[in-house]
Structure formats: structure tokens, C-alpha cells
Amino acid sequence: MEAITYARAHRDRCLAELQDFLRIPSVSTQAKHQEDVEEAAGWLRDRLLEAGFPEARVMPTDGHPVVFAEWSDAGDAAPTLLIYGHYDVQPPDPLDLWKTPPFEPTLKGDDLYARGASDDKGQLYTHVKAVEAWRETRGAPPVNVKCIFEGEEESGSPSLEAFIREHKDLLSADAALVSDTGFIGKDVPSIVYGLRGLAYLEIEVTGPDHDLHSGTYGGAVLNPINALCRLVADLQDENGRILIPGFYDRVVELPDEERAELAAVPFDRETWLEETGVPTDWGEAEYSILERVSARPTLDLNGIWGGYTEPGAKTVLPSKAFAKLSMRLVPDQDPQRIAELAADHIRALAPPAVQVEVRPLHGGEPALVDRESPMIEAASRAYEEGFGLKPVLVRRGGSIPVVAKMQSILGIETILMGFGLPDDRLHSPNEKFHIPNFYRGIETSIHFMDFLGGEPVS
Ligand code: BES
Ligand code: ZN
């Protein structure tokens, strides 16, 4: 196919463009990167126009802008694909653990190292380049294409729901395509049909109204750090079972059929241990590792601080202690309800000698997509062409809140076609994208559009 030949002939330029994209530090959660996030949006709009989209614009929201593009020349008989991705990235911290600077994309062997390389700039860019390949060889893609690239995914997509509601017609499509996930193993491409949701809270514990000498007051004043540690320890038993009353009420157990399918997915525990660096796995023994990390809800502290943390010793009984706490949710748990249950329980556990404040930060609904859809079949064939491997269907434990929103507001299913690898180190220092997966991802996207273009819409 000419589009594939074209993509292969232009690999080096595509990679150079991705490197330019990665140089822009579009960290959405940090106000100091406001201008960088805007720059990334403008950069992406310009590349969409260059790739052939007749229309591409940066659209304002209450937060960071959405980049929208549309190319609907394939005719009414052809399906419309809504491609979602995010051009924002996680903070690069801790900076001193990066072997090369996070915003100076660095090639090492077959990998490209930079914050956002895999999550999600490298992945979303595969589709932009697929469209360009169609434009250069056939004049236009064989399907109608719309793009919605957001700048707030890594900070919980606070403005996206309102944006989707407001622009329902503009975003109307037959299906959504999202590349923001990854392979379950290095040679195991994976189509994701289930994602977890999220409820995220911040806890602030206040003891005395200023720091105290721990010798003078220790013993009669409750230390807020001690209180916080006890409190968070009481939220979960030693096997990960969550002790918040009502937490499991709406959890849908995995059907036997699905458990059997997941059990057949090639998963190597030893490789997984190597990938994580942990001495052994942990958690609910009655569920497999794959089940635990994708179809079971969890509770994790993401940060905990207070008191003196610099070198040396300081004997202080601090005034405050803080924690950030997230819960990954599964169908049919509701993030808001879970956040309320958790906040009520934390307040109820608080001893009278301290004050405890609980603030919700953000959340996202879990999602399950229809595994039987012909679009999934087309995606599977596209992987076989692009990677020479048949993909497995799996659930994953991360969250992409827009998937549930596109179901409920736009009424469309999402095809989660990821190109990341398990050792891409998302959200961690030394994030990378495997360059062959970038190139093959472009080809897989070309094939996917080709298959969809030839299929009846259903
Ligand atoms: N790309 C991830 C989601 C992901 C990672 C899905 C791995 C499946 C496997 C996405 O960018 C992400 O990190 N999402 C956040 C969402 C949150 C901030 C609401 C997450 O999962 O923490
Ligand atoms: Zn992410």
C-alpha cells in the first residue's frame, strides 16, 4: 500500500517532529508551565494543518485548551473516527533520577527518552502521521477523521466534560480511537476493553497551631504525623482489602468467562517482577496479578509529608501532616460516591486530639467497552498488519476518564489501541517510547483507517 511505503520513507522526519513536540514541557498540573502547555497546543494545531486537515484549531476551555481538527471528505457512507489523545504530560519529578534531561529527547538504541514520549505525545502523533500518509498518497484518509487532543488529562480532565457537552455535534462520530495504553508484554500487543476509574483525595491533619519542641510537649500532644499514619493504615488490611464501609457495594465481580480469558493472556510473573523491581507480588491472593492490577479496586497513598525531612535530626512535634490518597475503581463504582464514603470514614476515624480535613482533588469513572464490536475486529487486523502479531484483549488498571464520558455523552464506544511497552516508565523518571512501536503504530493506524473505510458502519 502506498500510504505504508510513504510512512516508511518519512520515518526520520516523523521522529524529528516527535522530538520537537517532546521538547515543549507541557506539564498541565503546574501553573509555571501554563505557557508551555499553550505552546504545545499551537504546535500540534500547526502539525495537523500540515498533515492535511483542512480545519484545525485551538479551542479554549476553563482550563488548558483543546486542539480540535476535522477532515470529513470521505463521504457519508464512510465512518467517522474521533481520535482522542492528550498533549499534556506528568511533572518530570524527581528530576535527579533522570539519566538524560526530561525535555531534551534523547535517542538510545531503539528508544526515545523524554517525559511524555509514550504518555501520550508519541502515541497520539502516530495518528497525525497516518493521516499525513493518506493525504500524500490518496489525497485524503478513507474515513472521516476528527481529533480531540486535550491538555489536562494528567490533571484529571477538569474541563473536558463541559467541553464535550458543549460541542456534542462537533464531536459526533461512529467511534473513538484512543492510543494512551500499552502492550501487556513486549511482543503482546493489547487492545484494552476495560479501564479503572479514580477517586483522589488530599488529607490535612492539624495538631498544635505551631510546631512544638517534641521533648517539652511529646507525650501529651498527639503528633499529626503519627495520627495520619495510624489513620491511613486503618483504611486497608494487610492484603489490600479496603476497610471503608460501603466501598465494595457496587463492585461487579469478574464473570468466570472473563477470568478464563484473562488467565489465558500470556503474562510472565518473572518479567513482571523484573519490570517493577519488587521482591515479590502482593495483594488479594484469590485474584491473579493481572486481575489485581486491572479488575480490582485499590487504595494507595501517592504522597505523605510533614515535619522535618532535610538531612540530620530535628526534634520537632509538627503542627501539620498531609497525604495524597487515590483509589482506583472498577465498574460500577462511582468516583463521587466513593470519595464521599472515604472522606466520611476518614473523618470518623480521626481522634479528637487532632483536626482532619479531607479534600477531593479529582476523579474519573471506570469504563468497559463492547468487546464484540466490528471496530475491535478491525483494530485486531490492523495490529496483525502493523506488528505481525495478533493482539490480546485485556483490561488495564490506569484511568482515561474521557472513555466513560464519550460513552455517556456522545454515545460512542472507544477502541483503545495502545503502542506503549511495559517498561516505558510512564509517570516515572526516564520515560521512553520504543521507536519501532512509533513507526509500527503509524502503520497500524493507516491499516485501521483502511479497514474501517471498507466496512459498513454499525
Ligand atoms: N496513559 C495513562 C492511562 C493508562 C496507563 C491506561 C496505563 C492504561 C495503562 C493516562 O495518561 C493516565 O496516566 N491517566 C491518569 C488519569 C488520572 C489523572 C485521572 C491515571 O491513570 O493516573
Ligand atoms: Zn499518564
**Roughly how much helix do the residues carry, as a percent range?**
25-40%
The biggest sheet, with number of strands, parallel, antiparallel or mixed sense and barrel status, is: 9 strands, mixed
* Number of continuous helical runs: 14
Give unreliable regions as ranges.
Answer: none
Q: Report the average pLDDT across residues.
A: 96
CATH domain topology of the largest domain: Aminopeptidase
Name of the CATH class of the largest domain: Alpha Beta
First-last Cα distance: 26 Å
Keywords:
458 residues; alpha+beta; Aminopeptidase; Alpha-Beta Plaits; 2 domains; four-stranded antiparallel sheet; 18 strands; globular; binds ligand BES; binds zinc ion
Describe the structure concisely for a colleague.
With 458 residues, the chain is α+β, with helices and mostly antiparallel strands. 35% of the residues lie in helices and 21% in strands.
